[in-house]
Amino acid sequence: MKNLKKDLQAVTRELKALTKKTEAMAKKVAKLEKAQSAAKAKPKAKAKTAKKAPAKKKPVAKKKGATLTATDQVVNIIRRSKKGTDVPALMKKTGLADKTLRNILFRAGKQGKIQRSGRGIYVGA
Question: Does the reported pTM lie above 0.70?
Answer without folding.
Answer: no
